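Workshop exercise sheet. Pairs work together: one partner reads the sequence aloud, the other fills in the structure field after running the prediction. Swap roles for the next sheet.
Pair: D.N. / O.F.
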Amino acid sequence: MASARIQRWAVILSGFDYTVEYIKGTSNIADGLSRMPHWESCTNVEEYHYIHFIQSNNSIKLSFKDIARETRRDPILAKVSEAIKNGTLSNLKGSEFSAYVSKSQELSIEYECVLWGYRVLVPLKLRKQILHEFHKSHLGIVKTKMLIRSYIWWPAVDKEIEKLINTCIPCQELQPCPEKSFLIPWKPTDTVWSRIHVDFAGPIKNYYLLVVIDSFSKWVEVYKTKEITSTFTINKLREIFCRYGLIDTLVSDNGRQFTSVEFQTFLKNNSVKHILTAPGHPSTNGQAENFVKTIKNHCMQV
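Structure field:
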């Protein structure tokens, strides 16, 4: 059986009327393109040299002369440079020289610039400019450190790189949002009316609804009002306490009606522990919030 490729060729060629004739490979006539003769002989080959110029855009408008000039003006690097020339760097005293003294055997002077190995020590006045130039591509902290350490150095350069990137607005805007932490579920209560969750729903048709739900039995009490006040909330909670007894814990959001001095005094007098949910995270008061959502949905459908 022929291979799949031969079969495809056979199908394609079946539309033509032709005769297949076998010719030995040694008898084939060579194609003209690969066997075209060159009748003119040439012994001298002229060589041409081409210069391909690549324009480089150096965004850092600094030269070694600028760094050398600012090195002479820098109060610390000027003394370090002089001490290196005199061989007295290890004699410099003071915390501002400790980072240089620890590298005294590795520092040198080249074109009036201080070098640590092959890295240039940048004067204080030029550091901010050079950091911003290196960070124009908005690399991350690790890659920026790797890039800068290859060419320049000064004491605490890593901290300045971290500060620059952490305060860079374009970098922070494109950072992925931190993962939301998992909600810690409320510990189940053992008895009814031990812990209640309260919240206000509305406005619904010019009214507000005070929702009170027992965490154990899921029993719900709803009260209608035109204004949200601490006095109204206290009065309704007092009615509930008279019917079902005092509670141990009350959970609410950070609304003014729940954080007022009047409301806090009422809870304190009745020995009720008050737990405020995290601002901006209504799901931490899930039992009351879920029922509020249910009420709103039903009211919108009516």
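Discussion prompt: The chain has two domains: 64-173, 195-301. What would you look at next?
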